[in-house]
Amino acid sequence: MPAPLVFITGASSGLGQALAARYHRAGWRLALVARRESEMKNWADAQGISADSYEIYSADVSVIDSIAAAGQACLQRQGVPDVVIANAGISVGVDTAVRADIDVFARVLATNTVGMAATFQPFIAPMVQRGSGRFVGIGSVAGIRGLPGHGAYCASKAAAISYCESLRGELRGTGVGVSTICPGYIDTPLTRQNRYRMPFLMRPEDFAERAFAAERAGVSYGVIPWQMGVVAKLLRLLPNGLFDRLLAGRPRKHRQAEPPAP
């Protein structure tokens, strides 16, 4: 029997690489997906991963035909994955009053939400036919309440959380599971540009360890670290007026047209 196979998007940096490393240590074969093919190859070589245990697929998840083609190529070259992780995502601040930011808004949704569904699509029928497998959608605690200046990211992650919940119901009884895993603040290139405090900041490797355990346990929904889950639930319970006052004056995420924080 071949080793199990995991298909991971956003595998050229951050959480994607940490997840790939964790599954590799567990003896899994890897299907690595991102736009930057050379960076994935350099990383795999640096990790000492043997060439016969991974394949690289260059794709842009925001372009449906691109990620769909990567999925089909994986099916042909490596077979049906045991786990598919839709990890690729972008986080950019937006100002709805600025016309150019609406284009940014559309790109964030195309990547974080539509791109997740497009990542899963090629594998649903083969997994259902086999009667096993798991889809993992990487959400965010930012999808639980809307944060000022984060409209695109919060909306995209809220939609991703709801989408995974819908898919879980659709696949009930097929043997194929769906897990939604919502990170808090993780030390990645995305978060290093933030202008505000990031409580319970985690290393990507620590997140990957817990996410791997959650996926293997068949968790349907989880927040990592658990402390951020508590914070998110408390924020959800706050009356709108109190929530708005609490967030008043909070630094906003940098917009695409602005330089990142030093």
Structure, explained:
The chain is α/β, with parallel strands linked by helices and 262 residues long. It has one domain: NAD(P)-binding Rossmann-like Domain (Rossmann fold). Helix content is 46%, strand content 15%. It is built from eight helices and seven strands. The chain has helices at 14-25, 37-46, 64-77, 99-130, 151-170, 204-216, 226-237, 240-247, and strands at 5-9, 29-34, 54-58, 83-86, 133-138, 176-183, 221-224. The chain has a seven-stranded parallel sheet with strand order 3-2-1-4-5-6-7, sandwiched between helices. Helix 1 (14-25) packs across helix 6 (204-216), helix 3 runs parallel beside helix 4 (99-130) and helix 4 packs parallel to helix 5 (151-170). The radius of gyration is 18 Å and the shape is globular. The protein starts with a strand and ends in a 15-residue tail after the last helix. The model has no long low-confidence stretch (mean pLDDT 89).
Predict the CATH topology.
Rossmann fold
What gyration radius follows from the Cα positions, in whole Å? 18 Å
CATH superfamily grouping? NAD(P)-binding Rossmann-like Domain
Q: What is the element string, with H for helices and E for strands?
A: EHEHEHEHEHEHEHH
- Class, according to the CATH hierarchy? Alpha Beta
Shape: globular
CATH arch. level architecture:
3-Layer(aba) Sandwich
- How would you classify the helix and strand content by structural class? alpha/beta
The major β-sheet equals:
7 strands, parallel
- What's the overall average pLDDT, rounded? 89
Keywords:
262 residues; alpha/beta; Rossmann fold; globular
